[in-house]
Amino acid sequence: MHGEFPKQLLAKARGNTRRTLAIGLVLLVVAAALYYVFGKPAGQQPRANRFGAEGPVPVLVSPVTRADVPVYLDAVGTIKALNTVTVRPQVDGKLLSVNFKEGDDVKKGDVLAKIDPVTYQAQLDQAVAKKAQDEAQLANSKLDLERYEKLAATAAIGKQQADTQRALVAQNTALVQADQAAIDNARAMLGYTTITAPLDGRTGIRMVDEGNFVRAADTNSAVVVITQIRPISVLFNLPQQDLPQLNAAAAKGPLTVEAQRSDNDAVIDRGVLRVVDNQVDQTTGTVKLKAEFPNTDLQLWPGQFVNIRLLIDTLKQVTVVPTGAVQRGPNGTFVYVIKDDNTAVVRPITVQKQDETQTVVNSGIDANERVITTGFVRLTDGSKISIASADGSAPPQGAEPRNQRPDRQGGERRKRGGGNSKPN
C-alpha cells in the first residue's frame, strides 16, 4: 500500500513532462510558420511576389486575322511502285551476257541480257527452207491445174481429175501458210534470246549470273525486277465517315495530295488523287485510296511509310485565332479579348474548325481584335493585363517571356552576397 504511492507520483510526473514537450513542439511549429510568412527577409520572398502577383497579369497576345484555311484529311500511306515487272527468260538457253548494272535506270527496249541464239537461229532457217520447198510444190500444182482445166473444157480428160488437182493446189497453199506461221514463231523465239526492258524504271539486284542455264518454265530463273518509281503511287486508307465530303470534293475536280515526312511537317512531294476504291473494307470500316506523285527528286521509295494530307476544301477569308487562345468552360468555348483599357473580358465563341495551331471561329470575335494566348493562371473576367511581348508574338513553347524572366545572374550574386539583399 505504502509502496504504490511513490509509483503513482512518478507516473504523474512523467505525464506532465510529455504534455510539456507536446505543447513546446506545437509552439515551435507555430513560431516557424509565423516567421516564414511575416519575418522572411525581402530577398527570400516567394517568387510570385517578386513578379507582382498583386499587379496586372502578364500575358501574351495575338491578333485575330482573316485568312484562307485549307481543310485536310490526314492518313498514313505506303509507297508503292507505279509498276513492277519481274523480268524472266521466255526461252531456254545459256545466259551469254548481262548488259545492265544493279540499280541502273533503264528505258523501255534497253537490252538487259542475251541468251545463246544458235538453236533458235537454226530452227528459223529450217522453217524458211520448208516454206521454200512447199512454195515450189504449190507453183507446180498450179501449173498442172491450168492444164487440167483446159483439157477438161475440151472433154480430153474427166472433170474429176481437174477437181482433184484443184484440191491439191489448195492443200499446198495451206502448207505454205503453215510454213509462214512456223517462220514467225521461230523468229519470235529467236527474238526472245535478247531480253529487253518492258518499261522505264530502275533495276534491282541481279537474280542470275552470266553463264547459267535458264529455263522459261522455272519460276526461279528471273533475271531482275524493274520498278517504275517516276512517277510513283501511294496507298492509304480513310474512315468511311469521310466518304461524303471526299466524294463531294472529288466531283469538283482532281484533289491535291501532300506527302510529308513522319518526323516533321515538311512536304516531300505533291501529287494527285487517282482512285477511290469502289467498296469499304467491312473489317476496318475504311476505304482505300491511291494517289500518284511525280517523285522527281526520288524522295519517295517503294515500301516507305509517309504521312498523307488530302486537300478537300479551302475556307475563304474566315476568322482565325491561335488554338492556344481557345478555352473551354461549363458554358462552352470562349476566348479572352483585350479591351482598349488593357483589361481582359471573356468572349464566348463558336468554333467551326480546329487543329493544333489555328482555330476557325464562326462567330463571337472580329478581325480587328486581339486575344490572349498564354497567362491564364491568374486571369479572370475583367482582370488588368500587361502585354509581355510588344509585337504580340508568342515566345517558344515552354520559354518565359523576356520581361518576365528573372535576372539569373543577379540572383546568383544575391545568393553569394547574402539573403537580405533586395531584388533589382
Notes on the protein architecture:
The protein has 424 residues and is α+β, with helices and mostly antiparallel strands. It is built from six helices and 20 strands. Strands 2-9-12-11-10-13 form a six-stranded antiparallel β-barrel. A four-stranded antiparallel sheet has the order 6-5-3-8, with no helix packed on it. Strands 19-1-20 form a three-stranded mixed sheet, with no helix packed on it. It is elongated and about 155 Å long. It starts with a helix and ends in a 7-residue tail after the last helix. The model is unreliable at 1-6, 39-52 and 390-424 (pLDDT under 50).
- Radius of gyration from the CA trace? 46 Å
Mean pLDDT: 83
**CATH 2nd-level architecture of the largest domain:** Beta Barrel
Number of domains: 5
The end-to-end distance, rounded to whole angstroms, is 76 Å
The description of the largest β-sheet is:
6 strands, antiparallel, barrel
Order of helices and strands: HHEEEEEHHEEEEHEEEEEEEEEEEH
Structural class: alpha+beta
Biggest sheet strand order reads: 2-9-12-11-10-13
Strand content: 25-35%
CATH class of the largest domain: Mainly Beta
Q: Give the helix level as a range of percent.
A: 25-40%
Low-confidence stretches: 1-6, 39-52, 390-424
Instruction: List how many beta strands DSSP finds.
Output: 20
What name is given to the CATH topology of the largest domain? conserved putative lor/sdh protein from methanococcus maripaludis s2 fold
Number of contiguous helices: 6
